[in-house]
Amino acid sequence: MRELRLTGFANFVSLRLHRIKRLVAPNWIAVPVVLLMAGCRAEEPSVHTIRSPVVPFHEMFELADTVRLDPSILIGSIGFLDVSETGSLLITDYASRITHLFSATGKHMQSFSVPECLPDDSDFSPWSARFVGGGHVLVMDLSGPAVLFDLNGACVTGKRGGLHLLVKSFCTRDDSIFTHKAYDRGQASSTVYNLALEPVAEVPINPPRLVVLNFNLVGMAGRSIECFNDGAYYVYLENMDAMPLRARPDQIRYRPDFFQRWPKDAPDFPSAADLRKYPTTSAVFALDASTRMLFFIGLDRQWVRRDGDTVYSFGLSVASNQNLFPSRSTVSPVWPEAAANGYFYVVGDYESLPGGEVGNPLMIRYRFIPPQHENV
Protein backbone atom coordinates (compact mmCIF):
# COMPACT_ATOMS: atom_id res chain seq x y z
CA MET A 1 0.00 0.00 0.00
CA ARG A 2 0.92 3.65 -0.25
CA GLU A 3 1.75 4.08 3.43
CA LEU A 4 4.85 6.13 2.57
CA ARG A 5 4.32 8.76 -0.11
CA LEU A 6 6.29 11.83 0.88
CA THR A 7 8.58 11.02 -2.06
CA GLY A 8 5.58 11.02 -4.38
CA PHE A 9 4.50 14.36 -2.92
CA ALA A 10 7.89 15.82 -3.80
CA ASN A 11 7.65 14.40 -7.32
CA PHE A 12 4.33 16.17 -7.84
CA VAL A 13 5.97 19.42 -6.75
CA SER A 14 8.81 18.95 -9.22
CA LEU A 15 6.35 18.24 -12.03
CA ARG A 16 4.42 21.40 -11.29
CA LEU A 17 7.46 23.65 -11.24
CA HIS A 18 8.81 22.10 -14.43
CA ARG A 19 5.55 22.63 -16.32
CA ILE A 20 5.05 26.23 -15.18
CA LYS A 21 8.64 27.29 -15.82
CA ARG A 22 8.56 25.77 -19.29
CA LEU A 23 5.31 27.47 -20.25
CA VAL A 24 5.77 30.92 -18.70
CA ALA A 25 9.53 31.35 -18.80
CA PRO A 26 9.41 35.12 -19.53
CA ASN A 27 7.37 35.75 -16.37
CA TRP A 28 8.88 33.06 -14.12
CA ILE A 29 11.32 35.40 -12.39
CA ALA A 30 8.71 38.09 -11.76
CA VAL A 31 6.16 35.89 -10.03
CA PRO A 32 8.35 34.63 -7.16
CA VAL A 33 9.68 38.15 -6.59
CA VAL A 34 6.16 39.48 -6.07
CA LEU A 35 5.30 36.54 -3.85
CA LEU A 36 8.39 36.88 -1.70
CA MET A 37 7.77 40.59 -1.25
CA ALA A 38 4.29 39.74 -0.01
CA GLY A 39 5.70 37.61 2.83
CA CYS A 40 3.25 36.15 5.31
CA ARG A 41 -0.33 37.26 4.83
CA ALA A 42 -2.61 38.39 7.62
CA GLU A 43 -4.49 35.72 9.52
CA GLU A 44 -7.80 34.65 8.04
CA PRO A 45 -10.91 36.26 9.55
CA SER A 46 -11.78 35.03 13.02
CA VAL A 47 -14.23 32.13 13.07
CA HIS A 48 -15.58 29.89 15.79
CA THR A 49 -13.03 27.12 16.41
CA ILE A 50 -13.71 23.81 18.15
CA ARG A 51 -11.26 21.08 19.10
CA SER A 52 -11.30 17.84 17.07
CA PRO A 53 -10.07 15.12 19.49
CA VAL A 54 -7.85 12.31 18.24
CA VAL A 55 -9.39 8.84 18.59
CA PRO A 56 -8.13 5.39 17.49
CA PHE A 57 -8.39 4.74 13.76
CA HIS A 58 -10.79 1.80 14.22
CA GLU A 59 -13.31 4.06 15.97
CA MET A 60 -13.63 6.19 12.83
CA PHE A 61 -13.07 3.76 9.97
CA GLU A 62 -13.44 0.06 9.26
CA LEU A 63 -12.06 -2.02 6.42
CA ALA A 64 -14.99 -2.62 4.05
CA ASP A 65 -13.87 -4.48 0.91
CA THR A 66 -11.46 -4.59 -2.02
CA VAL A 67 -12.16 -3.76 -5.67
CA ARG A 68 -10.10 -5.65 -8.26
CA LEU A 69 -9.58 -3.74 -11.49
CA ASP A 70 -10.08 -5.50 -14.83
CA PRO A 71 -6.60 -6.72 -15.93
CA SER A 72 -7.51 -6.41 -19.62
CA ILE A 73 -6.36 -2.79 -19.22
CA LEU A 74 -3.10 -2.51 -17.30
CA ILE A 75 -2.37 0.67 -15.38
CA GLY A 76 1.25 1.69 -15.03
CA SER A 77 1.01 4.41 -12.38
CA ILE A 78 -2.17 5.74 -10.76
CA GLY A 79 -1.97 9.50 -10.55
CA PHE A 80 -5.50 10.59 -9.64
CA LEU A 81 -8.64 8.73 -8.60
CA ASP A 82 -12.21 10.04 -8.63
CA VAL A 83 -15.35 8.15 -7.59
CA SER A 84 -18.89 8.78 -8.82
CA GLU A 85 -22.12 8.65 -6.82
CA THR A 86 -22.65 5.12 -8.18
CA GLY A 87 -19.15 4.00 -7.20
CA SER A 88 -17.58 4.09 -10.67
CA LEU A 89 -13.83 4.71 -10.65
CA LEU A 90 -12.07 7.27 -12.83
CA ILE A 91 -8.31 6.67 -12.89
CA THR A 92 -5.56 8.67 -14.55
CA ASP A 93 -2.52 6.67 -15.59
CA TYR A 94 0.54 8.94 -15.49
CA ALA A 95 2.62 6.36 -17.38
CA SER A 96 0.36 6.07 -20.44
CA ARG A 97 -1.18 9.56 -20.07
CA ILE A 98 -4.62 8.01 -20.50
CA THR A 99 -7.63 8.18 -18.17
CA HIS A 100 -9.73 5.04 -17.63
CA LEU A 101 -13.28 4.47 -16.38
CA PHE A 102 -14.05 1.35 -14.36
CA SER A 103 -17.38 0.23 -12.92
CA ALA A 104 -17.92 -0.02 -9.16
CA THR A 105 -17.00 -3.71 -9.40
CA GLY A 106 -13.78 -3.01 -11.36
CA LYS A 107 -14.92 -3.76 -14.93
CA HIS A 108 -13.23 -1.59 -17.55
CA MET A 109 -15.85 0.62 -19.21
CA GLN A 110 -14.04 3.27 -21.26
CA SER A 111 -10.74 5.06 -21.90
CA PHE A 112 -10.28 8.77 -22.56
CA SER A 113 -7.38 9.74 -24.81
CA VAL A 114 -6.69 13.47 -24.92
CA PRO A 115 -4.64 13.54 -28.19
CA GLU A 116 -7.83 12.72 -30.09
CA CYS A 117 -9.29 16.03 -28.86
CA LEU A 118 -6.09 18.09 -28.78
CA PRO A 119 -3.89 16.58 -31.49
CA ASP A 120 -1.50 19.54 -31.29
CA ASP A 121 -0.77 18.91 -27.61
CA SER A 122 1.42 15.81 -27.58
CA ASP A 123 2.78 16.77 -24.15
CA PHE A 124 -0.60 16.61 -22.36
CA SER A 125 -0.19 14.83 -19.03
CA PRO A 126 -3.39 14.27 -16.99
CA TRP A 127 -2.97 15.94 -13.60
CA SER A 128 -6.53 15.21 -12.45
CA ALA A 129 -9.80 13.90 -13.87
CA ARG A 130 -13.30 14.16 -12.39
CA PHE A 131 -16.90 13.26 -13.14
CA VAL A 132 -19.00 16.24 -14.21
CA GLY A 133 -22.77 16.59 -14.30
CA GLY A 134 -23.51 12.88 -14.22
CA GLY A 135 -22.67 12.31 -17.88
CA HIS A 136 -19.25 13.80 -18.51
CA VAL A 137 -15.60 13.50 -17.55
CA LEU A 138 -13.20 16.45 -17.36
CA VAL A 139 -9.46 15.79 -17.69
CA MET A 140 -7.03 18.61 -16.86
CA ASP A 141 -3.34 19.09 -17.51
CA LEU A 142 -1.43 20.91 -14.79
CA SER A 143 -0.53 23.79 -17.11
CA GLY A 144 -4.05 24.66 -18.24
CA PRO A 145 -5.27 22.50 -21.16
CA ALA A 146 -8.50 20.64 -20.42
CA VAL A 147 -10.80 18.25 -22.26
CA LEU A 148 -14.43 17.37 -21.57
CA PHE A 149 -15.58 13.90 -22.67
CA ASP A 150 -18.90 12.12 -22.58
CA LEU A 151 -18.98 8.74 -20.85
CA ASN A 152 -18.64 6.98 -24.21
CA GLY A 153 -15.20 8.50 -24.66
CA ALA A 154 -16.18 11.06 -27.29
CA CYS A 155 -14.64 14.52 -27.11
CA VAL A 156 -17.20 17.22 -26.23
CA THR A 157 -14.91 20.21 -25.71
CA GLY A 158 -11.16 20.53 -25.82
CA LYS A 159 -9.22 23.72 -25.19
CA ARG A 160 -5.49 24.13 -25.03
CA GLY A 161 -6.08 27.14 -22.80
CA GLY A 162 -9.12 25.54 -21.23
CA LEU A 163 -8.49 26.55 -17.62
CA HIS A 164 -6.26 29.20 -16.08
CA LEU A 165 -2.53 28.42 -16.17
CA LEU A 166 -2.24 28.46 -12.37
CA VAL A 167 -5.21 26.18 -11.62
CA LYS A 168 -3.92 23.46 -9.32
CA SER A 169 -7.23 21.77 -8.43
CA PHE A 170 -10.85 21.70 -9.49
CA CYS A 171 -14.07 20.08 -8.31
CA THR A 172 -17.49 19.83 -9.90
CA ARG A 173 -21.09 20.19 -8.82
CA ASP A 174 -23.86 19.60 -11.35
CA ASP A 175 -22.68 21.48 -14.48
CA SER A 176 -20.30 23.88 -12.68
CA ILE A 177 -16.52 23.56 -12.37
CA PHE A 178 -14.90 25.28 -9.36
CA THR A 179 -11.15 25.92 -9.44
CA HIS A 180 -8.44 26.64 -6.89
CA LYS A 181 -5.46 28.55 -8.27
CA ALA A 182 -1.94 29.19 -7.11
CA TYR A 183 -1.76 32.57 -5.37
CA ASP A 184 -0.37 35.15 -7.79
CA ARG A 185 0.25 38.91 -7.63
CA GLY A 186 -1.97 39.58 -4.64
CA GLN A 187 -5.06 38.02 -6.20
CA ALA A 188 -6.86 35.13 -4.50
CA SER A 189 -10.01 33.88 -6.21
CA SER A 190 -11.80 30.86 -7.59
CA THR A 191 -12.88 30.94 -11.23
CA VAL A 192 -16.09 29.03 -11.96
CA TYR A 193 -16.50 27.48 -15.43
CA ASN A 194 -19.39 25.95 -17.35
CA LEU A 195 -19.25 22.78 -19.45
CA ALA A 196 -18.02 24.78 -22.45
CA LEU A 197 -14.96 25.54 -20.29
CA GLU A 198 -15.92 29.21 -20.30
CA PRO A 199 -15.52 31.33 -17.13
CA VAL A 200 -18.87 32.39 -15.68
CA ALA A 201 -17.91 33.79 -12.26
CA GLU A 202 -14.94 34.93 -10.20
CA VAL A 203 -15.29 34.34 -6.45
CA PRO A 204 -12.82 36.14 -4.11
CA ILE A 205 -11.31 33.85 -1.45
CA ASN A 206 -8.87 34.20 1.43
CA PRO A 207 -5.21 34.39 0.37
CA PRO A 208 -2.74 31.93 1.89
CA ARG A 209 -0.99 33.03 5.06
CA LEU A 210 2.23 31.30 3.94
CA VAL A 211 2.75 32.58 0.42
CA VAL A 212 6.06 30.91 -0.48
CA LEU A 213 5.06 27.52 0.91
CA ASN A 214 1.82 27.44 -1.09
CA PHE A 215 3.39 28.69 -4.30
CA ASN A 216 6.15 26.10 -4.37
CA LEU A 217 4.15 23.13 -3.09
CA VAL A 218 0.74 21.86 -4.10
CA GLY A 219 -0.01 18.94 -1.75
CA MET A 220 -1.80 15.97 -3.26
CA ALA A 221 -2.44 16.39 -6.96
CA GLY A 222 -5.80 18.05 -7.57
CA ARG A 223 -6.97 17.84 -3.95
CA SER A 224 -6.94 21.43 -2.61
CA ILE A 225 -10.65 21.98 -3.36
CA GLU A 226 -13.72 19.76 -3.01
CA CYS A 227 -17.41 20.21 -3.79
CA PHE A 228 -20.32 19.45 -1.45
CA ASN A 229 -24.06 20.05 -1.40
CA ASP A 230 -23.50 23.41 0.31
CA GLY A 231 -20.73 24.51 -2.06
CA ALA A 232 -17.00 24.15 -2.54
CA TYR A 233 -14.40 24.06 0.27
CA TYR A 234 -10.68 24.71 -0.20
CA VAL A 235 -7.46 24.38 1.80
CA TYR A 236 -3.97 25.81 1.92
CA LEU A 237 -1.05 23.80 3.21
CA GLU A 238 -1.04 25.54 6.61
CA ASN A 239 -4.79 25.20 7.34
CA MET A 240 -6.24 23.26 10.27
CA ASP A 241 -9.58 22.92 8.45
CA ALA A 242 -11.11 23.59 5.04
CA MET A 243 -12.78 26.91 4.25
CA PRO A 244 -16.05 27.36 2.33
CA LEU A 245 -15.64 29.12 -0.99
CA ARG A 246 -18.38 31.53 0.00
CA ALA A 247 -17.75 32.53 3.62
CA ARG A 248 -20.59 31.98 6.09
CA PRO A 249 -21.08 33.78 9.42
CA ASP A 250 -22.07 30.49 11.12
CA GLN A 251 -19.03 28.58 9.89
CA ILE A 252 -17.29 26.38 12.47
CA ARG A 253 -13.70 25.29 12.02
CA TYR A 254 -12.15 22.31 13.76
CA ARG A 255 -8.63 22.02 15.14
CA PRO A 256 -7.24 18.46 15.31
CA ASP A 257 -5.22 17.67 18.43
CA PHE A 258 -2.20 16.88 16.24
CA PHE A 259 -2.34 20.22 14.41
CA GLN A 260 0.58 22.63 14.86
CA ARG A 261 0.64 26.10 13.38
CA TRP A 262 3.47 27.05 11.05
CA PRO A 263 4.96 30.13 12.79
CA LYS A 264 6.50 31.58 9.64
CA ASP A 265 6.75 30.99 5.92
CA ALA A 266 8.98 28.29 4.48
CA PRO A 267 12.20 29.12 2.62
CA ASP A 268 12.08 29.12 -1.17
CA PHE A 269 12.01 25.51 -2.42
CA PRO A 270 11.68 23.98 1.07
CA SER A 271 13.55 20.75 1.75
CA ALA A 272 12.07 17.50 3.06
CA ALA A 273 13.46 18.46 6.47
CA ASP A 274 11.56 21.77 6.32
CA LEU A 275 8.34 19.90 5.58
CA ARG A 276 8.75 17.62 8.59
CA LYS A 277 8.81 20.52 11.06
CA TYR A 278 5.05 21.06 11.06
CA PRO A 279 1.97 19.23 9.76
CA THR A 280 1.09 19.99 6.16
CA THR A 281 -2.53 19.94 5.03
CA SER A 282 -2.27 17.91 1.85
CA ALA A 283 -5.89 17.37 0.75
CA VAL A 284 -9.59 17.81 1.36
CA PHE A 285 -11.98 14.96 0.43
CA ALA A 286 -15.77 14.56 0.34
CA LEU A 287 -16.62 11.43 2.32
CA ASP A 288 -20.16 12.21 1.25
CA ALA A 289 -22.06 15.26 0.03
CA SER A 290 -21.93 16.96 3.44
CA THR A 291 -18.92 15.41 5.20
CA ARG A 292 -15.39 16.72 4.69
CA MET A 293 -12.18 14.85 5.48
CA LEU A 294 -8.79 16.56 5.63
CA PHE A 295 -5.52 14.71 5.15
CA PHE A 296 -2.32 15.80 6.93
CA ILE A 297 1.26 14.60 6.54
CA GLY A 298 4.34 15.22 8.70
CA LEU A 299 2.78 15.00 12.15
CA ASP A 300 4.98 15.55 15.18
CA ARG A 301 6.86 12.50 16.48
CA GLN A 302 4.49 12.07 19.42
CA TRP A 303 1.83 11.01 16.90
CA VAL A 304 3.99 8.45 15.09
CA ARG A 305 2.45 4.98 15.14
CA ARG A 306 3.80 1.51 14.32
CA ASP A 307 2.07 -1.41 12.66
CA GLY A 308 4.60 -4.22 12.50
CA ASP A 309 7.49 -2.91 10.44
CA THR A 310 5.50 0.05 9.13
CA VAL A 311 5.91 3.49 10.71
CA TYR A 312 3.33 6.13 9.84
CA SER A 313 2.17 9.59 10.89
CA PHE A 314 -0.72 10.51 8.58
CA GLY A 315 -3.53 12.55 10.08
CA LEU A 316 -7.23 12.54 9.15
CA SER A 317 -9.80 15.01 10.45
CA VAL A 318 -13.50 14.56 9.68
CA ALA A 319 -16.29 17.10 10.16
CA SER A 320 -19.89 17.57 9.08
CA ASN A 321 -20.64 20.68 7.03
CA GLN A 322 -24.10 20.62 8.61
CA ASN A 323 -22.85 19.89 12.15
CA LEU A 324 -24.64 16.53 12.18
CA PHE A 325 -22.00 14.90 14.39
CA PRO A 326 -18.99 16.00 16.46
CA SER A 327 -15.70 16.29 14.62
CA ARG A 328 -13.05 13.67 15.29
CA SER A 329 -9.45 13.14 14.13
CA THR A 330 -7.20 10.12 13.94
CA VAL A 331 -3.73 8.95 12.94
CA SER A 332 -4.13 6.80 9.85
CA PRO A 333 -2.03 3.76 8.81
CA VAL A 334 -3.03 4.29 5.15
CA TRP A 335 -2.87 7.05 2.56
CA PRO A 336 -6.33 7.96 1.14
CA GLU A 337 -6.50 8.47 -2.60
CA ALA A 338 -10.18 9.35 -3.04
CA ALA A 339 -13.46 9.42 -1.10
CA ALA A 340 -17.17 9.14 -1.87
CA ASN A 341 -20.43 7.66 -0.63
CA GLY A 342 -19.20 7.24 2.95
CA TYR A 343 -15.92 5.49 2.02
CA PHE A 344 -12.35 6.45 1.35
CA TYR A 345 -10.19 4.53 -1.12
CA VAL A 346 -6.59 3.37 -0.76
CA VAL A 347 -4.40 2.21 -3.64
CA GLY A 348 -3.02 -1.16 -2.61
CA ASP A 349 -0.39 -3.49 -3.99
CA TYR A 350 -0.48 -4.80 -7.56
CA GLU A 351 -2.58 -7.95 -7.80
CA SER A 352 -0.84 -11.23 -8.55
CA LEU A 353 -2.70 -13.08 -11.32
CA PRO A 354 -2.79 -16.83 -12.03
CA GLY A 355 0.22 -17.84 -14.08
CA GLY A 356 2.53 -15.36 -12.39
CA GLU A 357 1.40 -12.25 -14.25
CA VAL A 358 0.97 -8.93 -12.46
CA GLY A 359 -2.39 -7.17 -12.67
CA ASN A 360 -3.52 -3.75 -11.51
CA PRO A 361 -3.32 -2.14 -8.08
CA LEU A 362 -6.07 -3.19 -5.70
CA MET A 363 -8.61 -0.57 -4.61
CA ILE A 364 -9.16 -0.95 -0.85
CA ARG A 365 -12.19 0.71 0.72
CA TYR A 366 -12.63 1.94 4.29
CA ARG A 367 -16.09 2.80 5.63
CA PHE A 368 -16.59 5.91 7.75
CA ILE A 369 -18.23 5.44 11.17
CA PRO A 370 -19.93 8.72 12.18
CA PRO A 371 -19.22 9.67 15.82
CA GLN A 372 -22.16 9.71 18.20
CA HIS A 373 -23.07 12.88 20.07
CA GLU A 374 -23.24 11.08 23.39
CA ASN A 375 -19.51 10.35 23.06
CA VAL A 376 -18.56 14.05 22.95
Q: Which residue ranges are poorly predicted, with pLDDT under 50 across at least 5 consecutive positions?
A: 1-43
Spatial ordering of strands, largest sheet: 2-27-26-25
* Count of individual beta strands: 27
What percent strand?
35-45%
User: How would you characterize the largest beta sheet?
Assistant: 4 strands, antiparallel
Mean pLDDT: 85
The global form is globular
Radius of gyration: 20 Å
| End-to-end gap | 33 Å
Fraction of helical residues: 10-25%
The helix/strand class is mainly beta
- How many helix segments? 6
Description:
The chain is mainly β and 376 residues long. 12% of the residues lie in helices and 41% in strands. It is built from 6 helices and 27 strands. The strands form 8 sheets. A 4-stranded antiparallel β-sheet has the order 2-27-26-25. Strands 3-4-5-6 form a 4-stranded antiparallel β-sheet, with no helix packed on it. A 4-stranded antiparallel β-sheet has the order 7-8-9-10, with no helix packed on it. It is globular and about 50 Å long. The two termini are 33 Å apart.
Helix/strand layout:
Blueprint: H1 6-23, H2 25-28, H3 30-38, E1 48-52, H4 57-60, E2 61-67, E3 78-83, E4 89-93, E5 98-102, E6 108-112, E7 126-132, E8 136-141, E9 146-150, E10 155-159, E11 167-173, E12 176-181, E13 189-193, E14 199-204, H5 211-216, E15 225-228, E16 231-234, E17 243-244, E18 252-256, H6 272-275, E19 280-288, E20 291-297, E21 305-307, E22 310-312, E23 314-320, E24 328-332, E25 338-340, E26 343-352, E27 358-368
